[in-house]
Amino acid sequence: MRYQITGKQIDIGNALQQHVEGELGSIMGKYAGRPTDAQIVFSKSAHEFVCETTVHLSTGLTAQAKGRATEIYAAFENCSEKMEKQLRRYKRRLKDHHKEREVPVELSGASSYILATENTSEETEPDSLQPVIVAEMEAKIPSLSVGEAVMQMEIAGAPVLVFRNEGKDGLNVVYRRDDGNIGWIDPQ
């Protein structure tokens, strides 16, 4: 597994890097069969250290966690506890579904745009109906079953996930509803 351990405007020593690799390696060995790479970013927010971890699994799923503490090692420990909890739940769900994915998740390319909001009053008419694009990024659309898409959305902590449905070979959306349930949009 490849590790990318960085610090935003703080120095990350060799001891911390070895500690992170050892701890994360043991968690991945315990719960995730074939992780491909991990990105760990340490930063400072006011008086707290923040640790953000993203792990990509060979099945195409991505696990993310964030931890905060007044000490940098404690921030990583909080983050690794959350990561371990997510991966434990993921592994349990795989066992519950009685299905192991034989092949990695197929990813399709797509464009993702961030649009600027306009603070105009309702009385004034905008000059153009075209939205202002702030950023354009590459996005990957995974090919998953509905159950795997819900699991991926929960692991990533995202409010919505667009995916290609393996069963019907069309684009679908799962999202968290205001009532706490999961919604599934399956266009005909």
Automatic annotation (TrEMBL):
One of its GO terms (cellular component) is cytosolic small ribosomal subunit. Residues 130-183 form the Sigma 54 modulation/S30EA ribosomal protein C-terminal domain. It comes from the Bacteria. Keywords: Coiled coil, Cytoplasm, Ribonucleoprotein, Ribosomal protein, Translation regulation. One of its GO terms (biological process) is negative regulation of translational elongation. Residues 73-100 form a coiled coil. It is found in: Cytoplasm. CDD domains: RaiA (cd00552). Its main location: cytoplasm. One of its GO terms (molecular function) is ribosomal small subunit binding. Signal peptide: none annotated. Required for dimerization of active 70S ribosomes into 100S ribosomes in stationary phase; 100S ribosomes are translationally inactive and sometimes present during exponential growth. Belongs to the HPF/YfiA ribosome-associated protein family. Long HPF subfamily. Associates exclusively with 100S ribosomes, which are dimers of 70S ribosomes. Interacts with 100S ribosomes. This is Ribosome hibernation promoting factor.
